[in-house]
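Hi R.,

As promised on Friday, here is the backbone we talked about, encoded as structure tokens. Could you run it through your design pipeline when you get a chance and send me back a sequence?
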């Protein structure tokens, strides 16, 4: 049998557009000789549709689009896709078969994730029966297909690191002896997750004694990035077919052909870069922006965001503002201009000294003195944020926030200042990861990805002057981040334990952490929650990003002596 894996990139809620794209892919699959085409979970809706599922008009529209697919699908092809099934009392995350001018529901998702970014129990009822489809295709013998949807495959506690679920859809299929297991997914990216998916597919193949075909959504929807990375494993659990990471594509697997050598594996840095570029590109496109704006400081964070923006939407569609204050070093200004020249960015410079003086003049009568300390530093950031928003509004641009995860974690960022923006591009990269990705981008190892994005393949993009300078917000004379925070390698180690591993201060102190430092960073993390609640959407890259999967209260005890956020 020849099976087409359709790695589609849907727009959430655009059922007509998604159906039209799916029909086009199905016709390509038929032309390539496929007899069965597979499309991801909730293909017509895009994932996650969230409260759009509550709109009956969209449920009705789905039915119309399925009818049109049935009427126009090439007759020699069967199509299996993810849909919503709604009855009077329940709604199911389901699979539909489109074949011979008809469509029908053939399976329901049994395990409904309600952790991290997932909230499927809010909408769906779990299926109760194992998904088995006996399918007779033209010129083929009748096949027994096991059917599963995304989470239904995540049942091996040793691989998932999660408690064993209450039911095991793979075990339930074993007595039915499927000849092929199909899993249609909308699985968001996280570092290392593609490998775990293949491990789960291999484990299922060995348990059932049959190949497993896994088809995943690709593209970015809001803060979630879907990497695709669809694959087939044989009955022994070896990967024999794979689609690329981060690309909307179609591939045809012939079950009778020899395994295809896997040569499209990316390094961790190349994978991060590719998916961040995809995240920026899709967020801009799907939200209706053709151009982007950012503030360029001469620091590592804004430099990396600028490079990502150029790679995503092109240098001619990206503009940078330089907003120096009296505390900005000549070196930072020169570094920003040199970066812009390497990236071929349009720049404008607006000096903010006079605006700072105007604020001082107006606030002095109220405060009894000019603003000082953190208040004065925040004013600089808010002046810059106001100017950036004004230009973005006037020119219809997507303003890109440039803060990293370390800063968001401890509140080393300013509400209505550097946090302004429609998308926080690197808000799920720790500062040490920002440096690592910048070093990779400037290395020969990045040449292929740079060419793929239309960037020069040789020479530095970020540059050693930016990569090697001591990090500083430059909001007061001779300021360094290390004046207020531990060095970033130490800080990021603490934050990973707090955020990704959910450890508490007592655990880190027992492991040898310096008590005062551990407790101070813990307090900053907790006391900065109100800022993160108001931040721009953060592109999710890790197992625990700030955003819809991070659900911490604002008004809550820290377990240590309370302190204010630094900015």
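Update: got your reply. Pasting your designed sequence below so it's all in one thread:
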């Amino acid at each position: 049998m020849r099976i087409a894996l359709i790695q589609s990139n849907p727009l959430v809620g655009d059922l007509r557009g998604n159906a039209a794209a799916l029909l086009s892919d199905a016709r390509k699959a038929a032309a390539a000789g496929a007899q069965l085409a597979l499309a991801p979970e909730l293909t017509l809706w895009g994932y996650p549709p969230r409260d759009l599922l509550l709109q009956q008009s969209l449920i009705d529209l789905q039915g119309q689009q399925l009818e049109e697919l049935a009427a126009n699908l090439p007759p020699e092809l069967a199509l299996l896709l993810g849909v919503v099934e709604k009855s009077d009392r329940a709604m199911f995350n389901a699979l539909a078969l489109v074949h011979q001018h008809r469509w029908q529901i053939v399976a329901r998702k049994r395990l409904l994730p309600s952790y991290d970014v997932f909230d499927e129990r809010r909408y769906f009822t779990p299926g109760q029966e194992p998904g088995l489809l006996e399918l007779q295709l033209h010129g083929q013998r009748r096949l027994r297909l096991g059917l599963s949807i995304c989470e239904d495959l995540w049942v091996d506690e040793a691989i998932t690191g999660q408690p064993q679920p209450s039911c095991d859809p793979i075990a339930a299929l074993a007595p039915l002896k499927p000849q092929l297991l199909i899993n249609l997914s909308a699985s968001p990216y996280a570092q290392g997750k593609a490998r775990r998916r293949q491990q789960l597919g291999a484990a299922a193949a060995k348990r059932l004694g049959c190949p497993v075909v896994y088809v995943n959504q690709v593209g970015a929807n809001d803060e979630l990035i879907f990497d695709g990375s669809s694959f087939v494993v044989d009955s022994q659990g070896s990967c024999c077919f794979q689609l690329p990471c981060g690309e909307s594509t179609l591939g045809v697997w012939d079950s009778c052909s020899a395994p295809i050598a896997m040569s499209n594996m990316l390094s961790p840095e190349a994978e991060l870069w590719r998916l961040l570029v995809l995240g920026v590109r899709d967020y801009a496109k799907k939200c209706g922006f053709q151009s982007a704006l950012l503030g360029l400081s001469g620091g590592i964070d804004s430099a990396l965001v600028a490079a990502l923006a150029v790679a995503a939407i092109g240098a001619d569609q990206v503009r940078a503002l330089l907003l120096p204050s009296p505390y900005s070093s000549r070196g930072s200004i020169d570094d920003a201009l040199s970066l812009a020249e390497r990236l071929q960015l349009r720049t404008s410079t607006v000096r903010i000294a006079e605006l700072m003086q105007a604020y001082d003049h107006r606030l002095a009568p109220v405060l009894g003195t000019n603003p000082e300390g953190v208040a004065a530093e925040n004013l600089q950031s808010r002046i810059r944020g106001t100017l950036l928003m004004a230009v973005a509004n006037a020119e219809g641009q997507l303003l890109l926030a440039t803060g990293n995860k370390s800063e968001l974690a401890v509140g080393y960022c300013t509400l209505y200042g550097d946090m302004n923006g429609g998308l926080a591009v690197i808000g799920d990269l720790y500062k040490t990861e920002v440096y690592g990705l910048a070093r990779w981008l400037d290395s020969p190892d990045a040449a292929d990805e740079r060419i793929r994005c239309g960037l020069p393949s040789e020479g530095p993009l970020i540059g050693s002057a930016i990569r090697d300078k001591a990090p500083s917000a430059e909001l007061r004379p001779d300021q360094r981040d290390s004046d207020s925070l531990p060095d970033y390698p130490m800080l990021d180690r603490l934050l990973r334990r707090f955020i990704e591993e959910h450890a508490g201060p007592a655990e880190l102190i027992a492991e040898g952490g310096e008590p005062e430092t551990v407790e101070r960073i813990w307090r900053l993390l907790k006391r900065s929650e109100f800022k993160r609640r108001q931040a721009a959407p953060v592109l999710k890259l890790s197992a625990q990003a700030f955003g819809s999967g991070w659900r911490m209260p604002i008004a809550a005890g820290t377990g240590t002596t309370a302190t204010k956020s630094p900015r």
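One thing I noticed while checking it: The chain has two domains: 2-257, 272-533.

Thanks again,
M.
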